[in-house]
Amino acid sequence: MPRRTSRTTLDRLRTPGRLTGFLKGASICALIAALLSPLAQAPAAAAASNDYCGGQCSDILPPGENGNATLAQILLNQAFGTQPDHAEDQLGPYANLAKGASTLTDATINTFFNDASFGVASDQVASTEKPANRSDVTIVRDKKTGVPHITGTTRYGTEFGAGYAAAEDRLWLMDVFRHVGRGQLTTFAGGAASNQGLEQEFYRNAPYTEADLQAQIDNAVANNGTRGQQALTDANAYLDGINSYIDASDSGRYFPGEYVLTGHKDSVTNAGTIDHFKITDLVALASVIGSLFGAGGGGEVNNAISLIAAQSKYGVEAGTKVWESFRERNDPEAVLTVHDGTSFPYATKPTDPQGEALPDSGSVTTEPLVYDATGTGASQSATAASETATATALSSARRGMSNALVVSGKYTASGHPIAVFGPQTGYFAPQLLMLQEIQGPGISARGASFAGLSMYVELGRGQDYSWSATTSGQDIIDSYAVELCTDDYHYLYHGTCTAMDKVEQTNSWAPTTADSTAAGSYTMRVWKTKYGPVEYRATVGGKKVAYTTLRSSYMHEADSIIGFQMLNDPSYVNSPQTFQSAVQHINYTFNWFYADSSHTAYYNSGNNPVRASGVDADFPVWGQAAYEWKNWDPTTNTADYTAASAHPNSIDQDYYISWNNKQALDYASAPWGDGSVHRGNLLEDRVKKLVAAGGVTRTKLVQAMADAALADLRAEDVLPKLLKVVNSSTVTDSTAAAAVTKLQAWVTAGAKRTETSAGSKTYANADAIRILDAWWPLLVKAEFQPGLGSDLYTAFSNNLPIDESPSAAHGPTGSHAGSSFQYGWWSYVDKDIRSVLGETVQGPLAQTYCGGGVLSSCRDILISTLKTAAGTSASTVYPGDSLCSAGDQWCADSIVQRTLGGIKHYNISWQNRPTFQQVVEYTSHR
After folding, report:
1. Number of C-beta neighbours around residue 836 at 10 A
2. Under DSSP, is residue 775 helix (H, G, I), strand (E, B) or coil?
3. Where do the H-state alpha helices sit in 89-224?
4. Residues ≥6 apart with Cβ < 8 Å to 380
5. pLDDT band at residue 18 under the 50/70/90 scheme
6. How large is the average pLDDT for residues 688-693?
7. DSSP letter assigned to residue 502
8. What is the pLDDT of residue 924?
9. Most buried of 15, 302, 375, 546 (most Cβ within 10 A)?
């Protein structure tokens, strides 16, 4: 069955259902002419603030800064492919690094990145404006990228300008995601199955009422003193700026055209409204971003299911050993961010587990979310989208993405630290992040922020320091088994039969120009307990239970604003220590990196709950007082958290790398896969080699990142060992021999997925790549399923996906998403094959699986599956989708800026790198 590309949030706007017939010659020209109303803005100079980077700070964020488009611009784009100004001008430079990195020099870095110096040179000013005619703020945009440089003379004016600029560049996107955060996307944007899945994914984990959203603001302000009050004042000024732009664009009729296409505005009469933003919208937005990128943990019930399967297969003792070997909680071969040997014990396996509530075999059912579905809310595609959303929401294998390479000045040519880092947030049009510079009282920063949350720069640079983050995976989510009483909607809490709270959101939709999905409706219903929302039901020892999910950041989505406020404050951050202090105020699970002219630093953030003695974080426990977090208060969802010193942290280590790998010794992460082969190894191997040689430059570090971005992890780190087994005796089969020759040539050439030349849209070593893409799932199954048995093999596959090649559809973004090789069985294959070869393996699997541990038998399995893979056609390996024809390997891998609005962009050659990225080397310090 042909694979279809996932169509996330308004993806139909690529080819709107009823827009095509609307685009007709003279009629569209007349319509566009009537709708175009360019705003004239007089150029003016902008003064730069203190900047200690010496012109050596750069950044990039494709596709472009401008994420708003009028109806006329959308129609032009759909009809002729034309782009609004600055909608696509960062996509080309970003894409070109894939083939341009090999000839890179320090002088040409900004061919592929933007100059991220503060301010705008007078001859580079494209426009200046005083939003709402205010005298206390100016927004200057540069000619090259159109990035807003906001300068305020008052704090209120500065934040007003930030809100105004955000609405200028991302109003439609902000509106989409405030509705996602409230579980109201389908009513707002249309009933496409992808929209249904997206709102369901987030509503299941964060079913907030309006009162819940407001309470989070009140608590964040009340608990943070002067800074809390300042954050509230800043947020209100920011909202005033957003709403001022809404009013101005509405009356001037230059608001985003998607409001017309989705039926919220009339293009002729201007009837209809664009709702003002309110402060609770910011919390709804934050809940989406936090859930996507900063909520490590979960998966305890799936862990229990696979443990039970292992014990059923092997017996309790042996099965537990097998399970633990696949879990790799503290694998001695795992790549580490803090690699100096310092241990940071957290969520480790207890010697005597207490309170475990493992389900009876076969009793687990997922809690329904959707009720009373009608029309397209009950269709087959809607059901499939709902199932995918549920799996994503409940999995511990969250899409971490993001990477960082940071080198101490001791090993650089200049003596100053160098960093190349950024978040991998997927590819969207418009992008989830936006670039900006903010200069005002108590704020001095440039960088990226999530649209609608850009009152502060969230990832970027200050006057003499830069910071960035990668998603970490430590466990801040636990599952509790609450014993039911009376009926399915009452449970025992501290011995008292207590009613669950019912939270509902009813949505309905009808066809629009943007989304022709037929009418439909449904109600999302969540049952909440003091231990969080109900996610599963089961029996434990014959007793009926509900499994709930409790997240330490639940009801605390607004708390992190204090940490971001500090990062933007030049009077607060002036050293590695003050940087670490700032990010300690961020309760989401992130790895934070820092560089200035003399120092580097790292800190792992998140509210890590202190668990009761003996509780194993990997499994569900009973919802009883003895197994609750220490000093947990269910009214506020607060508890004792591990001390800052207990979080992995470091200052001035020789180098740091992170690609969502293990942070430090004994620091367990919730997702599986932190073993001997991880995509973090692609950075570790390259940076370690650079540091050993010394004289690291910005060019060399960018090249290391870019080289890793094209590497096939399986081919670089596992394939040579597979070929060693295959070649342990002469390969006599001609088909297998030819495949081996191709694969070996690819490995020798560097194991990259790269074009023959820039723009060729054809891979070098294309046939070897096809063979490995076809071979990997075949060899994994043939290697492990016979020994594990079908049930356990399936259960482990649910804990950790087999593969994540670039062309595979993965996560809520579907295929064409760039980020690859985060989750897969590469470590299992690596350890197992090395055991078969008789090589030393630290932390081996409990058994040897390939051929039962016999080299000749393992070789037979590999050759048999290799022959099958070699004979599998490209059209089968790459079956095609709405963008690519079957067999088009390059296109199957390619990155697409997934449309969240009306503007579409061309796809680019695959790279596995951050979406927003900085290259920094400071020359001096305050």
Report:
1. 26
2. helix
3. 91-100, 109-112, 155-181, 185-189, 193-205, 210-222
4. none
5. very low
6. 98
7. E
8. 96
9. 546
